[in-house]
Every structure is written in C-alpha cells, then in structure tokens.
Amino acid sequence: MSVIQRDRASLWHPYAPASGSLPLWEVEDADGVTLRLRDETGRRHEVLDAMSSWWAVIHGYRNPVLDAAAKRQLDTFSHVMFGGLTHEPAVELAERLVAVAPSAADRPRLERVFLADSGSVSVEVALKLAVQFQTASGFPRRQRFLSIRGGYHGDTFAAMGVCDPVDGMHSAFPGLLAANVFAARPPAVGAPPGEIAEWQAHVEDLAAEHANELAAIIVEPVLQGAGGMFIYAAECLRILRDIADRHGILLILDEIATGFGRTGELFAAQHAGVVADIMCVGKALTGGYLTLAAMLCTGDVAARVSSGGAGALLHGPTFMGNPLACSVANASLGILDDGAWRSDVARIGSGLAAGLEAANAFDAVKEVRTIGAVGVIELNTEVDVAAVTSAAVGHGVWLRPFRNLVYAMPAYISSAEEVRRMAEGMVAAVAEVHGP
After folding, report:
1. Please, which contacts does 160-163 make with residues 24 or more away whose CB atoms are closer than 8 Å?
2. Which residue among 153, 380, 429, 431 has the highest number of C-beta atoms inside a 10 angstrom radius?
C-alpha cells in the first residue's frame, strides 16, 4: 500500500473532507525551493514550491544555517517546560524580536514577548491580554473587538470571532463565536482620498458607538492574507491607530503572514509608520522549520496586566518557549540581519509582476496584483482547486489556490529564473482550467 493510500485511510487534511477526494502528492525530498513529489499513480514530479509551505519557508528547504542550529540544540536539550525555567535560546529570541520590532520616537516600544505554539494561539493570547488590560484599567465591560471585513486571524475560537463573519471560513459556528464589531473592508491601495475619507468616517462612527465595550482593534496590516490576499491603503492603518488612541483602546496588529519581509518591509505596519500596542508574529519566524509564534506588547500593557487583579497573563502553553524552535528562529532572524532579503523580495516582486501580467488578458481573471514577494491572480469565479493544482504540477509548480485566488509567496532564495517559471506555471494553469 502506498503512502497516499495509507494517508487516505487515516488522516484528515486542512479544509478538506475526511473522504480524501482531493488529489494528493507524497513529498519524497525537498531542497532549496524544489519539492520532489510522487503522485497516486507512482509517477514522480519535480516542482518549484511557489507557496513556501503556506508562507513560512522563507529561506528554502534544508537551509544549512537552520539545519545547523537545530542540530546544535538537539545536542543539548530539545525541550523543557517554561514554567519556572528559562534558557538561552528563548532569551535571545525575545531580545532579537524586541530589537527588530517596529518603533517610533513618540510611541511606547514593544518590549515584552510571550512565546506561543502557533499563530492562532498568539492571537488568542493577544485578545486575552487586551481584555485583561482593560479590566485592570477599570473598564471590565470592554470585552469586544473591532475588526474589519475580509480579515483572517486563525482557526481557534477567539481568533475565529475576529475573522470576517460573513465571507470567512467560520460561518458554520455562529452560536459559538463572540459577537464582535466589524467595519467595512478598507479601500484598496491606490484608492482616491475621498474613498478613504468616507471609510474613515464610517470606522470613527462605529468606534464611537461601541467605545465603552471595545478592548482593542485587531487587523492584518496592509495585506489581508487568507481573507482574500487583499492589499489596502496604508493610510487606513494610521487612521485605526488614531481611533484607538482617542478611545483608549488597544491596537493589535496581526503580522503572522506579513512579518519578516514578505511585503517589502520587515513588518507590514512599517509601510504606514504605525506601531502597535500588541503585535503577533508566526509562520516565517522559524523559517518554516518548527511551529512557533510570539506576541509582543508594550511595557505599559504588560505592567498594567501584571499589577491587575489576576496578577498574571492567564495563558501558558505546554510547549511555550520550546528551545529547539527558539534556536532555529534565532538562526532565521540572523539570516535576515544583513538586510539582503530586501533585494531578494524586490527581485521576486518584479518577477511576479512581469510574469503574471499576461493573465490580465484572460476573461476569467478579475485582477492581477502584487506586493513585496506576493503575486495574486484573482478570478471572477471560484477557482477549481483540484484542477488548477494538478495543472500547475504538470507545469512544474506547486500551488495551493483557494476561494477565487491563485497566488504565490515564494521563498526569498528563489532566483529570477525560478520566479519566472513559477509565474509562467501559474498563468498556464489558470488558462488550462479556467480558459484564457
């Protein structure tokens, strides 16, 4: 029995039925940006990974620096509990994150770090922290959140409650999710000033109406990921910062998908010059080697919660601060230290913009857009996920489309030629399945 047959007998894949009707490929080897696959017939395929494994493997597979960091840590200890114990990898990681986090002369610094298991968990921690902060500040009724349509923040329950309640993936749980407040999706990048002003008035009215019950505003800065790969005007982030300040509520920025260079800045909030009160990071934090995320907050937020009635932030994952993951994360951040990622991201962005342009001529295509090392083909209809994925493999590219989007987020080490081939494969797959 093949690996794929055994998989179908016992495993469940993300956003898929247990019956396993979608096609599967077995990964036999990975190196750089190349995956070597075997399909259900036993045929082998060598493909370029245009997804960097859901946006995390920014330095490529089998990166020698990350491999070495993992092996060094394995030679000492791979895990210890974080309650009452500490270790060098976690301390170094906290120091590194504080050093690179967005900052501004007129804003408190993000200086306290909570290490979590995954991006969704870091969002859960951020939301709990915001509620505890408001309670400790004398506002125990402030337990709701203001978010925007099109947002996505994870699949755990509190995180689901701040995702788009209509067009998101969580409408199956209406009675279980918190009733939060949602503003309209911000205007797209390049929108005229009048459209931005109209959106600003809408959000200001909404915030004023609910200010006495809001703990925080939570958004993905500039680029919404799983909610539609939508790029919005950076000015909107500055508007949200101002609204939060005027109403005494916190601003939480979810940089899980956008952090560590993906949009062309180290953190997407830097496109707007905005500093959060609370920031979540994950995905690329370990270069895709191990699951790890972090929540950063200002010293004031940390002090207020620590001196409140609970006396602590009420969260503590079993694998919090896992030293193996922290060691690899430190190595990943070390690779980013010299800033070479900026030219890498620019190269990828230019290649995707040039290579995807041909799709604009297709009747099935609504829009092609790029930001940083992100390229998106938006269709007029739902994408045929199985067919487009299979077609892309046939053209030597690994893709994972969703909704009406065929997109790429390649590893930063992707060469100009590899990016050209990725874009070519995307365009060819769309043309083959949905028509030119």
Report:
1. 162/123, 162/127, 162/218, 163/227
2. 153
The alpha-helical segments, DSSP class H, found in 38-166 are 52-55, 64-74, 88-100, 119-136, 157-160
Cβ atoms of 239 and 267 closer than 8 Å: no
pLDDT in tens, 141-171: 999 999 999 999 999 999 999 998 887 666 7
Q: How far apart are CA 145 and CA 133, in angstroms?
A: 13
Which amino acid makes up residue 309?
G
The total of other beta-carbon atoms located within 10 Å of residue 371's CB is 22
Between 88-100 and 323-336, two packed helices, what is the crossing angle to 10 degrees?
A: 40
For the annotated catalytic residues, the residue numbers are 15, 152, 254, 283
Nearest CA-CA partner of 58 in 254, 280, 334, 296: 334
Written as six digits, the tokens of 39 are: 């399909």
Q: Which residues are annotated as a binding site for substrate?
A: 54, 152, 283, 316, 400
Judge contact between 347 and 142, C-beta under 8 A.
Answer: no
Q: What are phi and psi of 158, to 5 degrees?
A: -65, -40
How does DSSP classify residue 116?
E
Helix, strand, coil percent values for the chain (each to nearest 5):
40, 20, 40
**Which pLDDT score, from 0 to 100, does residue 172 have?**
79
In this prediction, residues 298-313 reach a mean pLDDT of 94
How many whole angstroms separate alpha carbon 332 and alpha carbon 326?
Answer: 10
Query: Which residues are annotated as part of the binding site for pyridoxal 5'-phosphate?
Result: 119-120, 254, 317-318
Amino acid sitting at position 111: E
**Residues making up the binding site:** 54, 119-120, 152, 254, 283, 316-318, 400
Contact yes or no for 345/372 (Cβ under 8 A)? yes
